[in-house]
Design goal:
By secondary structure, this protein is an alpha/beta fold. It has 17 helices and 11 strands. It has 3 domains: 113 residues, 3-Layer(aba) Sandwich (Rossmann fold); 152 residues, Rossmann fold; 57 residues, no CATH class. A 5-stranded parallel sheet has the order 2-1-7-8-9. A 4-stranded parallel sheet has the order 4-3-5-6, with helices on both faces. Helix 8 packs across helix 13. The radius of gyration is 21 Å and the shape is globular. The N terminus is likely disordered.
Length: 372
């Protein structure tokens, strides 16, 4: 961003911030369900300009963070299978499993490769026909179309050495699970822009209609988020609960039907294990029977021992909005991005990492604890 753009945006933000501060809502809690929003909120300093009565919470919007240790342990077991090369996105490497991480086994010689897209994994399968290339697929609805397309392409290319271990998840069942748990009072929700570009804005109408919670679909620029917060507070102030799409330049009411139909043709909806939540029905994606030749869980026999988590890690509570990152006793001391105890400090979209890198009050708390 150049200085002219920064000045223009700050000038446009000022009246929005002032309007937010004048909203007579009483104490309210707003939650985002997108890791991209979490990072944008911290990077833009949005929490620091909120009035005291407006509390911002981060929900289970980071796909790396909600991946359970049981699923990560499964990927590690697959990586150790003879003749297998496990491929996945970079954020997953440093996430601690029950006993080790993908980065640790890679350092010991286990073939684990970082890819930037599914096409990278397919190219590896083409280039190394004597190896079994397994793609560890994580993510929400945003990345599911690319995963589905990769499976279709693998069949079109006749790749018999490509398979997928899918632990992809669906955002809305996660949101519903959080609301049903009732651990935190959520007065308004910042709807995820990227996910909604696939499933559509209308997919979130259940929030106002079934739960009486207003929702605003937002983009990722600071002005987008401030406008969405103002719209949420305006509904709360007026005693209304509705769905507003503030990201109309990208998100359509019906979403991207072609992309979502591709996902539905390749994947079945199944129950899935979420970190901090346990098993959530109808919240995961598994390859359909017609595509099971590419299902790594069916292709390989592996042994996975019972999983557990570091006893000091409270990532699950952070994902549920019950705990804010700096209130964890190991935040910024025993647990840092260089030496994480859990995924919320690893992922670029994790709430703990966002606090650590961008939130000044959190940094001050870390420095004070180190001096004491």
């Amino acid at each position: 961003m150049n200085l002219l753009t920064a000045f223009r945006d700050s000038t446009r933000a000022a009246p929005l911030i002032e309007r937010i501060r004048r909203r007579d809502t009483g104490p309210v809690s707003l939650m985002e369900f997108c890791g991209g929003h979490t990072v944008a909120i911290f990077r833009g300093g949005i929490r620091t300009v909120m009035p005291e009565h407006v509390r911002m919470l981060s929900g289970p919007g980071c796909p790396v963070c909600v991946t359970s240790n049981a699923d990560l342990d499964r990927a590690i077991a697959l990586a150790k299978t003879p003749n297998v090369v496990l491929t996945t996105y970079g954020d997953m490497l440093k996430v601690p499993g029950s006993r080790e991480s993908l980065a640790q086994i890679k350092a010991l010689g286990t073939p684990v490769e970082i890819v930037y897209s599914t096409i990278d994994a397919l190219r590896l399968a083409q280039n190394y026909p004597d190896k079994q290339i397994v793609f560890f697929a994580i993510g929400f609805e945003t990345t599911a179309p690319a995963a589905a397309a990769a499976v279709i392409q693998a069949r079109n290319w006749g790749l018999r050495n490509f398979s997928m271990c899918s632990v992809m998840k669906l955002t809305i069942p996660g949101a519903q699970a959080l609301l049903r748990m009732g651990e935190v009072k959520v007065n308004g929700i910042l709807g995820p822009g990227h996910v909604s570009s696939i499933i559509g804005a209308e997919a979130w109408r259940f929030l106002p209609e079934e739960h009486g919670v207003p929702v605003v679909i937002s983009g990722f620029e600071t002005l987008d988020i401030l406008a969405a917060i103002d719209a949420l507070l305006a509904m709360i102030e007026g005693g209304k609960a509705d769905l507003i799409n503030e990201y109309r330049r990208i998100v359509k009411p019906e979403g991207n039907r072609k992309a979502w139909n591709t996902v539905r043709n390749v994947f079945d909806v199944v129950s899935s294990s979420w970190r901090g939540f346990g098993e959530i029905p109808a919240s995961g994606l598994r390859l359909r029977r017609e595509w099971e030749e590419f299902d790594a869980d069916k292709r390989f026999e592996i042994t996975v021992y019972p999983s557990d988590e570091h006893p000091a890690c409270r990532c699950g509570e952070v994902l549920r909005g019950v705990l804010e990152a700096p209130d964890c006793t190991v935040f910024g001391t025993a647990c840092t991005p260089e030496h994480p105890l859990g995924p919320c400090m690893v992922s670029s979209e994790g709430s703990c990492a966002a606090y650590y890198h961008f939130h000044q009050s959190a940094r001050l708390r870390i420095n004070n604890s180190k001096r004491s």
